[in-house]
Design brief:
Distance between the termini: 33 Å
Strand content: under 5%
Radius of gyration: 14 Å
């Protein structure tokens, strides 16, 4: 692990050793390996399921549902911001406009960094009835 950048009170140290500062939203602190690792270990629905179901599993399912549309990668990464913010159940998220704004701003930075269509990512972030 290579540690880079200075750690601040607004930072987390990522799996690959990067320093992610939530106030700076530096595109250089975004790393696909960090996203993949964190989402694989982040439970959906606040962990309130009988078995473990990760955000990565959910993202794979969304991507699979989009097969053949050229939006598979956006589907796979539509919850990428949760690698840095964690997964908050939607009913609580609706009550926290500042969180939603932060999540959107981070999604924009991630989309730019990973060359994703932000409109597709935002559309996929809208409440839907999929698991």
């Amino acid at each position: 692990m290579i540690l880079d950048q200075e750690y601040t009170e607004n930072s987390i140290r990522t799996y690959t050793g990067k320093c992610f500062d939530i106030r700076k939203l530096d595109p250089d602190s975004i790393c696909i390996e960090d996203i993949a690792h964190a989402l694989a270990y982040t439970p959906r629905f606040g962990g309130h399921l009988e078995g473990f179901y990760s955000v990565a599993q959910h993202s794979f399912y969304v991507s699979d549902c989009l097969a053949g549309t050229n939006d598979e990668l956006a589907g796979l990464l539509h919850d990428a911001s949760e690698a840095y913010l964690g997964d908050m159940p939607s009913p609580f998220k609706k009550l926290m406009p500042c969180y939603k704004e932060l999540e959107h701003n981070l999604s924009v930075v991630i989309a730019k960094n990973l060359v994703l269509n932000i409109r597709i990512v935002c559309t996929l972030k809208m409440p839907m009835h999929y698991y």
